[in-house]
Predict the 3D structure of the following.
Amino acid sequence: MADEFLRKRRETEEHISKKGTSVNNLETTKLDTSLKDSKLLFGLIVFRVCNVFLVQTWFVPDEFWQAPEVAHNIAFGYGHLTWEWREGIRGFTYPLLFAVPFKVLEIFRLDYPTLVIYSPRVIQAIFGAVGEYHIYKLARLLYGNSAAWWVLFCQVTSWFMFYCITRTLTNSMETALISIGLYYWEFSEKIRPGSTSEINLQNSAIYKALVLASLSCLVRPTAMVIWVPLGVARLWKVSPVHFLLIFVLPTGLFSLIFSILTDSYFYRKFVLVQYNFLYFNIMQNIGELYGTHPWHWYFTQGVPAVLGSHLAPLAIGLYSSGKCLQKWLLLIVIDVTVFSFLGHKEFRFILPVVPMAMLISGRGLHYIATTDSSVNVKKHDDNSIRDITHISFKGKLLAIFLIVTNIPVALYIGLVHQRGTLDVMRALNEKVETKTNDAVWFLMPCHSTPYYSYMHSKVDMRFLDCSPNQQPGYIDEADLFYNNPQSWLDVTFKNRKELLPSHLVFFDVLFKDIELFLKENSYSECGRYFYSHFPSGRLGRTVCLFCKMDHNK
C-alpha cells in the first residue's frame, strides 16, 4: 500500500513538473496566497476601524435610533423605541448584534459612554471590511488578480462607502452581507462538479450564499431586490425543483422561523416584521410622510452623487468589457428602478449597489491602466501588475483623479458637515448630572441627535414627537411647535415652572423665536457647536446649548 502511494505521488509530481511547477511549489503558492489574503483582510479591518474615528458627523436618524438605541434598551433597560417598534416594522436581528456586547460591557462594569458609543461602530466596520474583502475575492475569481486590485482600489476610494459603511445603518449591514454572499454565489457557479468533493464544495458555497442572503433580508427586507433576480437566473441553469427543495426552502424556512421566534419574543406577541415592513412601506407608502422625490431622482441625482467621479471608470468598464459586466449592470438597474417606484427616496437606499458599481469601475480602471501602446506591461504568473511603474500614464492619471475627488469630500462630510448634533451630546455627557434631577429638552426637528445610546445615563430627556399619523388634519408635535415656538413654550410651562428643563438644545435659527422665553426663565448659552456651512429650513449653522443659570457649568 505504501509503495503504491509513493508511486502515485511520484507520477503526480512528474505530471505537474511538466507544467513548470511541483507539488511543493503548488502547496507553497497556496500558502502564500492564504497569507496574503489574511494580511489583506487584516489591513481592510484596520482601515475601516480607523474610518470609524474619521466619521464624526450626523447622516440620518436611523443610524442611532434603529440599532444602538434599541440595543441599549435591550441591554440596559432604558432607551427610546420609535413608532416603528410599536408597529412591529423592525426586526431585532441587527440590534441584537450590539445588545450582546453591551451586556458584556455591563457585566464586566466596562460600560463607559465611549465604549458604548463606539463598540457598535467598530463591529459594523469589521463587517464592512469583510464585505469588501469578499468583493475583492469576487473580482479575482471573475476577472483575475490584477483587475481585483483595481476593484478594491475603487471600493476603498469611494467617498460614499467611507461615509456610510461604518455607520450603524441596516443599509450598511445589508451591503456587507450581500457583498459576502455574492462571492459564494458566483463561486458556486464557477464549479463544474465532477467528483464528490467538488459537489460538496459547490453545495457548501450555495448554502453559504443563501444563508447570507437570508440574513441580509432579515436585516433589511429590501435585500430581496438583489437576491430574487439572481435566484430566478439560477433556476434557468439548474433543476428548479431540486434547487428549491434542497437549498432555498430549508435555508429560507430556517431564517423565517428564527426571525419569527426572535422578534415575537422581544415584541411579546406573534409578529412577522417582513410583512409589516412591506405593508407600511409599500402598501401604505408611509415613507412619503418623510418627503418625496420625482420618479427619476435616483437616475438623475442619487446614483451620480453616490458614485461621483467613479462614473468615469464605470463608463470605461462598460465600454471595454460590457458583455462580462452585464449581470452587475442589470442588477444595479433593477435595484434602482424598483426603488424609483417609491415616493420617499434616500441616498443610503442604494448603498448595496455601490460594490457592484465598483466591480465595473475597477474593471474599467484596469483596462486603462494596462492598455497603452507606449507601455510594455509586465505581469506575474498570477496576472498582477509587477509595480506602479508599469501602469499606463492614463491609468495613473485616472487613479490620482479618483483620490483627489473622493478623499477631500469624504473627510469634509465625515469630520465637518453636520457634526454639531453629535458634539452637543458629548457636551451633555459632561454637563448633565442625574443626581441633581437635570433634564434635557431638544427643541429641534425630531431625532436630530442620538439619545440614550450616546448619553448612557438615566437622564430625563424629551424631544419633539413627529410619529406619523394618517388621520385627516393631524399635525404632529414638531409642526405645532414650529408654527409658533414662543406660544408653544408658554402653554407647555404655564403654571409649571418647576418642570423647566435644566438644558435646552436647539438650532441657532430658532433663537430669535424663543429669545424672550430664554430671558424670562434665566437661560444662558453654555455651548455652541458648528453644524453646517449650508443651513436650510429648520436646520441652522450651529447647535446651541442653553442652561439654567444654576446649571451653567
Observations:
- Residues 1-6, 12-27, 373-387 have pLDDT under 50 and may be disordered.
- Strands lie at 439-442, 460-463, 503-507, 523-530, 542-548.
- The first strand starts at residue 439 and ends at 442.
- DSSP finds 24 helices and five strands in the chain.
